[in-house]
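Standup notes, structure subgroup. Blocker cleared on the uracil input:
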Amino acid sequence: MLSPYEFIAEKQRGNSHKPSEIHDFIQGFIEGEVHDYQMTAWMMSVFFQGMSYEETIALTKAMIQSGNRVDLSNINDPTGDKHSTGGVGDKITLILAPLLSASGMVIPTIAGRGLGFTGGTLDKLESIPGLSTALSIDEIKDLSFRNGLAFGAQTDDLVPADRRMYALRDVTSTVRSLPLITASILSKKVAEGIGSIVFDVKCGKGAFMETEPEAIELGQWLVNCAERFELKAAALITTMDEPIGRTVGNWLETEESIDVLRRKYMPPDIVELTESLGGTLLMLAGITGNIEQGINRLREAWNNGSAFDKFSQAVNAQGGDTGVFEENHGIYDQPRIVIPLTASKSGYISEIHAREVGYCGVLIGAGRKKTDDVIDPTSGFIFKKKVGDFVQQGEEILLIMGNDESQCKTVHNRLSGGVTIMKKEPAKTPLIRKVITREGNFEWLDYRNSK
Ligand code: URA
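Run returned:
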Protein backbone atom coordinates (compact mmCIF):
# COMPACT_ATOMS: atom_id res chain seq x y z
CA MET A 1 0.00 0.00 0.00
CA LEU A 2 1.35 3.46 -0.94
CA SER A 3 1.75 6.06 1.77
CA PRO A 4 -0.18 9.34 1.15
CA TYR A 5 3.22 10.93 0.39
CA GLU A 6 4.03 8.34 -2.30
CA PHE A 7 0.49 8.47 -3.72
CA ILE A 8 0.67 12.26 -4.13
CA ALA A 9 4.17 12.04 -5.62
CA GLU A 10 2.94 9.54 -8.25
CA LYS A 11 0.35 12.00 -9.51
CA GLN A 12 2.79 14.91 -9.35
CA ARG A 13 5.00 12.95 -11.77
CA GLY A 14 2.00 12.43 -14.06
CA ASN A 15 1.68 8.68 -13.39
CA SER A 16 -1.61 6.76 -13.29
CA HIS A 17 -3.10 5.36 -10.09
CA LYS A 18 -4.47 1.85 -9.74
CA PRO A 19 -8.17 1.65 -8.66
CA SER A 20 -7.12 -0.02 -5.37
CA GLU A 21 -4.68 2.85 -4.61
CA ILE A 22 -7.43 5.43 -5.20
CA HIS A 23 -9.79 3.44 -2.99
CA ASP A 24 -7.21 3.26 -0.16
CA PHE A 25 -6.42 6.98 -0.37
CA ILE A 26 -10.12 7.99 -0.18
CA GLN A 27 -10.79 5.49 2.59
CA GLY A 28 -7.73 6.82 4.47
CA PHE A 29 -9.11 10.35 4.12
CA ILE A 30 -12.46 9.29 5.58
CA GLU A 31 -10.74 7.45 8.45
CA GLY A 32 -8.49 10.40 9.29
CA GLU A 33 -5.20 8.83 8.14
CA VAL A 34 -4.98 11.15 5.14
CA HIS A 35 -5.07 14.78 6.25
CA ASP A 36 -6.82 17.72 4.59
CA TYR A 37 -3.48 19.16 3.46
CA GLN A 38 -2.55 15.86 1.80
CA MET A 39 -5.91 15.62 0.06
CA THR A 40 -5.48 19.22 -1.13
CA ALA A 41 -1.97 18.50 -2.43
CA TRP A 42 -3.26 15.45 -4.31
CA MET A 43 -6.22 17.36 -5.80
CA MET A 44 -3.84 20.12 -6.91
CA SER A 45 -1.68 17.44 -8.62
CA VAL A 46 -4.80 16.05 -10.35
CA PHE A 47 -5.68 19.60 -11.36
CA PHE A 48 -2.38 19.92 -13.22
CA GLN A 49 -1.73 16.32 -14.35
CA GLY A 50 -5.29 15.12 -15.00
CA MET A 51 -6.64 11.59 -14.61
CA SER A 52 -7.76 8.97 -17.09
CA TYR A 53 -11.32 7.93 -17.59
CA GLU A 54 -10.65 4.68 -15.66
CA GLU A 55 -9.06 6.55 -12.74
CA THR A 56 -12.10 8.83 -12.63
CA ILE A 57 -14.51 5.87 -12.51
CA ALA A 58 -12.40 4.41 -9.68
CA LEU A 59 -12.47 7.74 -7.81
CA THR A 60 -16.26 7.99 -8.25
CA LYS A 61 -16.69 4.44 -6.90
CA ALA A 62 -14.39 5.13 -3.94
CA MET A 63 -16.30 8.32 -3.12
CA ILE A 64 -19.64 6.48 -3.26
CA GLN A 65 -18.17 3.72 -1.03
CA SER A 66 -17.14 6.34 1.53
CA GLY A 67 -20.82 6.21 2.56
CA ASN A 68 -24.01 4.32 1.74
CA ARG A 69 -26.36 4.47 -1.23
CA VAL A 70 -30.06 5.29 -1.22
CA ASP A 71 -32.05 2.22 -2.24
CA LEU A 72 -35.14 3.28 -4.18
CA SER A 73 -36.02 -0.20 -5.45
CA ASN A 74 -39.38 -0.08 -3.62
CA ILE A 75 -40.47 2.91 -5.76
CA ASN A 76 -42.36 2.13 -8.96
CA ASP A 77 -42.32 5.57 -10.57
CA PRO A 78 -39.27 6.57 -12.66
CA THR A 79 -36.54 8.18 -10.59
CA GLY A 80 -34.15 10.85 -11.79
CA ASP A 81 -32.44 14.16 -11.24
CA LYS A 82 -30.91 17.20 -12.90
CA HIS A 83 -27.46 18.53 -12.06
CA SER A 84 -25.74 21.74 -13.02
CA THR A 85 -21.97 22.06 -13.24
CA GLY A 86 -22.34 25.42 -11.46
CA GLY A 87 -23.42 28.87 -12.47
CA VAL A 88 -24.26 32.33 -11.16
CA GLY A 89 -27.91 32.97 -10.29
CA ASP A 90 -28.60 29.31 -11.14
CA LYS A 91 -31.76 28.51 -9.20
CA ILE A 92 -33.14 26.05 -11.76
CA THR A 93 -33.10 23.02 -9.40
CA LEU A 94 -35.45 24.79 -6.99
CA ILE A 95 -37.97 25.23 -9.82
CA LEU A 96 -37.38 22.12 -11.88
CA ALA A 97 -37.29 19.50 -9.11
CA PRO A 98 -40.91 20.18 -7.97
CA LEU A 99 -42.06 20.50 -11.59
CA LEU A 100 -40.62 17.06 -12.40
CA SER A 101 -42.04 15.55 -9.26
CA ALA A 102 -45.48 16.97 -10.11
CA SER A 103 -45.04 15.47 -13.61
CA GLY A 104 -44.70 11.91 -12.34
CA MET A 105 -41.01 11.52 -11.48
CA VAL A 106 -39.43 10.83 -8.12
CA ILE A 107 -36.59 13.29 -7.43
CA PRO A 108 -34.36 12.43 -4.45
CA THR A 109 -31.87 15.22 -5.06
CA ILE A 110 -28.51 15.43 -3.26
CA ALA A 111 -27.39 18.94 -3.99
CA GLY A 112 -24.19 20.89 -3.37
CA ARG A 113 -23.13 24.11 -1.69
CA GLY A 114 -21.68 27.22 -3.28
CA LEU A 115 -18.37 26.49 -4.92
CA GLY A 116 -15.88 29.22 -5.84
CA PHE A 117 -17.84 32.02 -7.52
CA THR A 118 -20.90 29.81 -8.17
CA GLY A 119 -23.92 29.46 -5.91
CA GLY A 120 -25.20 26.22 -4.36
CA THR A 121 -28.72 24.81 -4.17
CA LEU A 122 -28.27 23.83 -0.50
CA ASP A 123 -27.29 27.34 0.57
CA LYS A 124 -30.32 28.73 -1.29
CA LEU A 125 -32.72 26.23 0.27
CA GLU A 126 -31.28 26.73 3.75
CA SER A 127 -32.14 30.42 3.49
CA ILE A 128 -35.71 29.25 4.22
CA PRO A 129 -35.88 29.48 8.03
CA GLY A 130 -35.93 26.07 9.71
CA LEU A 131 -35.28 24.03 6.57
CA SER A 132 -32.77 21.23 7.06
CA THR A 133 -31.06 19.42 4.20
CA ALA A 134 -29.08 17.12 6.53
CA LEU A 135 -31.34 14.17 5.75
CA SER A 136 -30.44 10.61 6.64
CA ILE A 137 -30.60 7.96 3.95
CA ASP A 138 -33.86 6.66 5.44
CA GLU A 139 -35.34 10.16 5.43
CA ILE A 140 -34.44 10.64 1.74
CA LYS A 141 -36.04 7.27 0.97
CA ASP A 142 -39.12 8.04 3.00
CA LEU A 143 -39.64 11.54 1.51
CA SER A 144 -39.08 10.19 -2.00
CA PHE A 145 -41.63 7.44 -1.39
CA ARG A 146 -44.23 9.68 0.27
CA ASN A 147 -43.81 13.01 -1.58
CA GLY A 148 -41.74 12.17 -4.67
CA LEU A 149 -39.25 14.91 -3.74
CA ALA A 150 -36.40 15.33 -1.25
CA PHE A 151 -33.64 17.92 -1.02
CA GLY A 152 -30.66 16.24 0.66
CA ALA A 153 -26.98 16.99 1.17
CA GLN A 154 -23.77 15.03 1.40
CA THR A 155 -23.63 13.81 5.01
CA ASP A 156 -21.45 11.47 7.10
CA ASP A 157 -23.56 8.70 5.57
CA LEU A 158 -23.94 9.94 2.00
CA VAL A 159 -20.78 10.53 -0.05
CA PRO A 160 -18.93 12.05 2.93
CA ALA A 161 -15.78 12.10 0.80
CA ASP A 162 -17.39 14.56 -1.63
CA ARG A 163 -18.60 16.80 1.18
CA ARG A 164 -15.07 17.24 2.51
CA MET A 165 -13.26 17.32 -0.84
CA TYR A 166 -15.80 19.82 -2.22
CA ALA A 167 -15.20 22.17 0.72
CA LEU A 168 -11.42 21.97 0.22
CA ARG A 169 -11.67 22.55 -3.54
CA ASP A 170 -13.91 25.55 -2.94
CA VAL A 171 -11.18 27.45 -1.12
CA THR A 172 -8.05 26.15 -2.87
CA SER A 173 -8.98 26.90 -6.50
CA THR A 174 -9.05 23.25 -7.50
CA VAL A 175 -12.58 23.19 -8.86
CA ARG A 176 -11.82 23.49 -12.57
CA SER A 177 -10.68 19.94 -13.19
CA LEU A 178 -12.60 17.54 -15.47
CA PRO A 179 -12.02 14.35 -13.45
CA LEU A 180 -12.66 16.05 -10.08
CA ILE A 181 -15.91 17.66 -11.29
CA THR A 182 -17.06 14.40 -12.91
CA ALA A 183 -16.37 12.29 -9.80
CA SER A 184 -17.91 14.89 -7.49
CA ILE A 185 -21.15 15.17 -9.46
CA LEU A 186 -21.52 11.50 -10.32
CA SER A 187 -20.75 10.19 -6.84
CA LYS A 188 -23.70 12.18 -5.47
CA LYS A 189 -26.02 11.22 -8.30
CA VAL A 190 -25.21 7.50 -8.27
CA ALA A 191 -25.57 7.44 -4.47
CA GLU A 192 -29.11 8.82 -4.90
CA GLY A 193 -30.11 5.52 -6.50
CA ILE A 194 -31.76 7.20 -9.51
CA GLY A 195 -32.37 5.77 -13.00
CA SER A 196 -31.83 8.81 -15.24
CA ILE A 197 -30.08 12.16 -15.18
CA VAL A 198 -29.83 15.34 -17.23
CA PHE A 199 -26.71 17.47 -16.79
CA ASP A 200 -26.69 21.21 -17.34
CA VAL A 201 -23.10 21.82 -18.42
CA LYS A 202 -22.53 25.54 -18.20
CA CYS A 203 -20.21 27.28 -20.59
CA GLY A 204 -19.01 30.88 -20.57
CA LYS A 205 -17.78 33.67 -18.33
CA GLY A 206 -19.70 32.49 -15.26
CA ALA A 207 -18.89 28.79 -15.64
CA PHE A 208 -15.94 26.64 -14.65
CA MET A 209 -15.69 25.63 -18.34
CA GLU A 210 -15.37 28.90 -20.22
CA THR A 211 -15.24 27.65 -23.80
CA GLU A 212 -17.68 25.46 -25.69
CA PRO A 213 -15.09 22.75 -26.51
CA GLU A 214 -14.20 22.47 -22.79
CA ALA A 215 -17.88 22.25 -21.83
CA ILE A 216 -18.50 19.60 -24.51
CA GLU A 217 -15.57 17.60 -23.13
CA LEU A 218 -17.03 17.76 -19.61
CA GLY A 219 -20.47 16.79 -20.98
CA GLN A 220 -18.92 13.76 -22.67
CA TRP A 221 -17.10 12.75 -19.48
CA LEU A 222 -20.30 13.02 -17.47
CA VAL A 223 -22.50 11.14 -19.96
CA ASN A 224 -19.95 8.39 -20.63
CA CYS A 225 -19.13 7.84 -16.96
CA ALA A 226 -22.85 7.93 -16.02
CA GLU A 227 -23.49 5.11 -18.50
CA ARG A 228 -20.89 3.01 -16.65
CA PHE A 229 -23.11 3.32 -13.57
CA GLU A 230 -26.19 2.33 -15.62
CA LEU A 231 -27.71 5.80 -15.56
CA LYS A 232 -29.62 7.01 -18.65
CA ALA A 233 -27.96 10.36 -19.25
CA ALA A 234 -27.84 13.44 -21.48
CA ALA A 235 -25.96 16.73 -21.10
CA LEU A 236 -27.16 20.10 -22.38
CA ILE A 237 -24.44 22.67 -23.09
CA THR A 238 -25.87 26.01 -21.96
CA THR A 239 -24.59 29.59 -22.05
CA MET A 240 -23.53 31.08 -18.70
CA ASP A 241 -22.28 34.60 -19.47
CA GLU A 242 -24.70 36.76 -17.49
CA PRO A 243 -26.44 35.78 -14.24
CA ILE A 244 -29.60 33.69 -14.71
CA GLY A 245 -32.91 35.41 -13.93
CA ARG A 246 -33.19 38.64 -11.99
CA THR A 247 -31.38 37.82 -8.75
CA VAL A 248 -28.14 36.49 -7.26
CA GLY A 249 -27.94 35.68 -3.54
CA ASN A 250 -29.38 32.89 -1.46
CA TRP A 251 -32.67 34.22 -0.15
CA LEU A 252 -33.17 36.50 -3.16
CA GLU A 253 -32.90 33.50 -5.50
CA THR A 254 -35.18 31.35 -3.38
CA GLU A 255 -37.77 34.12 -3.34
CA GLU A 256 -37.44 34.48 -7.13
CA SER A 257 -37.92 30.71 -7.56
CA ILE A 258 -41.10 30.83 -5.48
CA ASP A 259 -42.41 33.68 -7.66
CA VAL A 260 -41.60 31.71 -10.81
CA LEU A 261 -43.23 28.52 -9.48
CA ARG A 262 -46.31 30.61 -8.73
CA ARG A 263 -46.08 32.12 -12.23
CA LYS A 264 -45.98 35.63 -10.79
CA TYR A 265 -43.41 36.37 -13.43
CA MET A 266 -41.60 34.20 -15.94
CA PRO A 267 -38.05 35.34 -16.85
CA PRO A 268 -37.40 33.93 -20.36
CA ASP A 269 -33.96 32.47 -19.51
CA ILE A 270 -35.27 30.63 -16.43
CA VAL A 271 -38.25 29.25 -18.38
CA GLU A 272 -36.12 28.10 -21.34
CA LEU A 273 -33.56 26.32 -19.14
CA THR A 274 -36.20 24.71 -16.96
CA GLU A 275 -38.30 23.45 -19.87
CA SER A 276 -35.36 22.20 -21.96
CA LEU A 277 -33.71 20.29 -19.10
CA GLY A 278 -37.03 18.99 -17.75
CA GLY A 279 -38.41 17.97 -21.16
CA THR A 280 -35.20 16.04 -21.88
CA LEU A 281 -35.27 14.25 -18.52
CA LEU A 282 -38.95 13.25 -18.83
CA MET A 283 -38.10 11.72 -22.21
CA LEU A 284 -34.99 9.92 -20.88
CA ALA A 285 -37.02 8.50 -18.00
CA GLY A 286 -39.63 7.20 -20.45
CA ILE A 287 -42.46 9.29 -18.98
CA THR A 288 -43.04 11.01 -22.33
CA GLY A 289 -42.23 9.84 -25.84
CA ASN A 290 -40.36 13.02 -26.81
CA ILE A 291 -39.04 16.34 -25.48
CA GLU A 292 -42.01 18.41 -26.70
CA GLN A 293 -44.48 16.19 -24.82
CA GLY A 294 -42.24 16.48 -21.77
CA ILE A 295 -42.33 20.28 -21.97
CA ASN A 296 -46.12 20.23 -22.26
CA ARG A 297 -46.32 18.01 -19.20
CA LEU A 298 -44.16 20.45 -17.21
CA ARG A 299 -46.32 23.40 -18.33
CA GLU A 300 -49.43 21.60 -17.08
CA ALA A 301 -47.84 21.13 -13.64
CA TRP A 302 -46.76 24.78 -13.67
CA ASN A 303 -50.19 26.10 -14.72
CA ASN A 304 -52.33 24.02 -12.39
CA GLY A 305 -50.27 24.93 -9.31
CA SER A 306 -49.26 21.33 -8.52
CA ALA A 307 -45.53 22.10 -8.85
CA PHE A 308 -45.75 24.95 -6.35
CA ASP A 309 -47.73 22.67 -4.00
CA LYS A 310 -44.98 20.04 -4.32
CA PHE A 311 -42.33 22.60 -3.39
CA SER A 312 -44.34 23.76 -0.34
CA GLN A 313 -44.88 20.14 0.72
CA ALA A 314 -41.15 19.39 0.44
CA VAL A 315 -40.18 22.53 2.39
CA ASN A 316 -42.70 21.70 5.08
CA ALA A 317 -41.54 18.09 5.33
CA GLN A 318 -37.95 19.28 5.87
CA GLY A 319 -38.88 21.70 8.65
CA GLY A 320 -38.95 24.88 6.54
CA ASP A 321 -41.24 27.76 7.43
CA THR A 322 -43.58 28.23 4.43
CA GLY A 323 -44.82 31.45 6.05
CA VAL A 324 -41.82 33.00 4.31
CA PHE A 325 -43.62 32.39 0.97
CA GLU A 326 -46.28 34.96 1.86
CA GLU A 327 -46.08 38.65 0.94
CA ASN A 328 -44.88 40.90 3.79
CA HIS A 329 -43.91 37.87 5.90
CA GLY A 330 -41.50 40.04 7.88
CA ILE A 331 -39.26 37.04 8.63
CA TYR A 332 -36.20 38.64 7.09
CA ASP A 333 -35.15 42.20 7.66
CA GLN A 334 -34.05 43.77 4.42
CA PRO A 335 -30.26 44.09 4.15
CA ARG A 336 -29.05 47.30 5.78
CA ILE A 337 -27.23 48.57 2.72
CA VAL A 338 -28.74 48.90 -0.76
CA ILE A 339 -26.53 50.62 -3.34
CA PRO A 340 -27.69 51.02 -6.95
CA LEU A 341 -25.28 50.68 -9.85
CA THR A 342 -26.39 53.16 -12.49
CA ALA A 343 -25.61 53.51 -16.21
CA SER A 344 -22.58 55.71 -16.94
CA LYS A 345 -24.02 56.43 -20.43
CA SER A 346 -27.06 55.61 -22.54
CA GLY A 347 -26.97 52.51 -24.75
CA TYR A 348 -27.52 48.76 -24.83
CA ILE A 349 -26.16 46.52 -22.09
CA SER A 350 -23.79 44.15 -23.85
CA GLU A 351 -22.31 42.42 -20.81
CA ILE A 352 -23.04 41.71 -17.15
CA HIS A 353 -20.01 39.61 -16.33
CA ALA A 354 -21.31 36.58 -14.43
CA ARG A 355 -17.98 35.58 -12.84
CA GLU A 356 -17.42 39.11 -11.56
CA VAL A 357 -20.94 39.09 -10.09
CA GLY A 358 -20.20 35.69 -8.50
CA TYR A 359 -16.94 36.85 -6.89
CA CYS A 360 -18.59 40.08 -5.76
CA GLY A 361 -21.36 37.95 -4.20
CA VAL A 362 -18.70 36.13 -2.15
CA LEU A 363 -17.27 39.52 -1.02
CA ILE A 364 -20.63 40.68 0.34
CA GLY A 365 -21.29 37.41 2.18
CA ALA A 366 -23.45 35.46 -0.29
CA GLY A 367 -20.67 32.85 -0.67
CA ARG A 368 -17.69 31.54 1.34
CA LYS A 369 -14.06 32.65 1.32
CA LYS A 370 -13.12 29.98 3.89
CA THR A 371 -14.78 26.60 4.47
CA ASP A 372 -16.21 27.69 7.84
CA ASP A 373 -17.57 31.08 6.69
CA VAL A 374 -21.22 31.64 7.55
CA ILE A 375 -23.37 32.79 4.64
CA ASP A 376 -25.42 35.97 4.88
CA PRO A 377 -28.72 34.77 3.33
CA THR A 378 -30.07 38.22 2.49
CA SER A 379 -27.10 39.70 0.65
CA GLY A 380 -26.88 39.64 -3.15
CA PHE A 381 -27.94 41.50 -6.27
CA ILE A 382 -31.21 42.40 -7.97
CA PHE A 383 -30.87 43.03 -11.71
CA LYS A 384 -33.21 45.65 -13.08
CA LYS A 385 -31.73 45.25 -16.56
CA LYS A 386 -30.40 42.27 -18.50
CA VAL A 387 -28.03 41.98 -21.47
CA GLY A 388 -29.73 43.41 -24.57
CA ASP A 389 -31.82 45.96 -22.62
CA PHE A 390 -31.53 49.67 -23.43
CA VAL A 391 -30.61 52.00 -20.53
CA GLN A 392 -30.63 55.77 -20.20
CA GLN A 393 -27.63 57.42 -18.56
CA GLY A 394 -28.19 57.42 -14.78
CA GLU A 395 -30.80 54.61 -14.89
CA GLU A 396 -30.43 51.79 -12.34
CA ILE A 397 -28.96 48.57 -13.75
CA LEU A 398 -28.73 46.57 -10.55
CA LEU A 399 -28.99 46.86 -6.78
CA ILE A 400 -26.20 45.71 -4.46
CA MET A 401 -27.74 44.42 -1.23
CA GLY A 402 -25.57 43.72 1.81
CA ASN A 403 -24.90 44.39 5.45
CA ASP A 404 -21.36 45.73 5.34
CA GLU A 405 -21.10 49.22 3.87
CA SER A 406 -17.43 49.16 2.95
CA GLN A 407 -17.75 45.74 1.21
CA CYS A 408 -20.79 46.99 -0.71
CA LYS A 409 -18.83 50.04 -1.86
CA THR A 410 -15.86 47.88 -2.94
CA VAL A 411 -18.26 45.68 -4.88
CA HIS A 412 -19.88 48.75 -6.45
CA ASN A 413 -16.48 49.84 -7.82
CA ARG A 414 -15.60 46.35 -9.01
CA LEU A 415 -18.97 45.76 -10.69
CA SER A 416 -18.83 49.07 -12.56
CA GLY A 417 -16.12 47.35 -14.61
CA GLY A 418 -18.23 44.18 -15.00
CA VAL A 419 -21.08 45.91 -16.84
CA THR A 420 -20.53 47.09 -20.42
CA ILE A 421 -22.80 49.47 -22.34
CA MET A 422 -22.55 49.87 -26.12
CA LYS A 423 -24.28 51.94 -28.80
CA LYS A 424 -25.25 48.92 -30.90
CA GLU A 425 -27.68 46.25 -29.75
CA PRO A 426 -25.58 43.12 -28.99
CA ALA A 427 -26.02 39.92 -31.01
CA LYS A 428 -27.93 37.20 -29.11
CA THR A 429 -26.11 34.01 -28.10
CA PRO A 430 -28.37 30.93 -27.91
CA LEU A 431 -29.00 29.86 -24.32
CA ILE A 432 -29.14 26.14 -25.06
CA ARG A 433 -26.40 25.26 -27.51
CA LYS A 434 -25.90 21.53 -27.83
CA VAL A 435 -26.93 18.21 -26.39
CA ILE A 436 -24.63 15.29 -25.72
CA THR A 437 -25.97 11.76 -25.54
CA ARG A 438 -24.27 8.41 -25.83
CA GLU A 439 -25.14 8.54 -29.57
CA GLY A 440 -23.05 11.71 -30.04
CA ASN A 441 -23.23 15.53 -29.98
CA PHE A 442 -26.12 17.39 -31.62
CA GLU A 443 -27.25 20.97 -32.12
CA TRP A 444 -29.95 21.51 -29.51
CA LEU A 445 -32.72 22.70 -31.83
CA ASP A 446 -32.11 19.87 -34.33
CA TYR A 447 -32.20 17.33 -31.52
CA ARG A 448 -35.29 18.81 -29.88
CA ASN A 449 -37.19 18.84 -33.18
CA SER A 450 -36.10 15.34 -34.11
CA LYS A 451 -37.27 13.81 -30.84
N1 URA B 1 -20.93 20.56 -8.91
C1 URA B 1 -20.54 19.55 -8.11
O1 URA B 1 -21.34 18.88 -7.48
N2 URA B 1 -19.22 19.30 -8.04
C2 URA B 1 -18.30 19.98 -8.74
O2 URA B 1 -17.15 19.68 -8.65
C3 URA B 1 -18.73 21.04 -9.57
C4 URA B 1 -20.07 21.31 -9.64
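Discussed briefly. The chain has three domains: 4-50, 80-325+431-450, 337-422.
Next: hand off to the docking folks.
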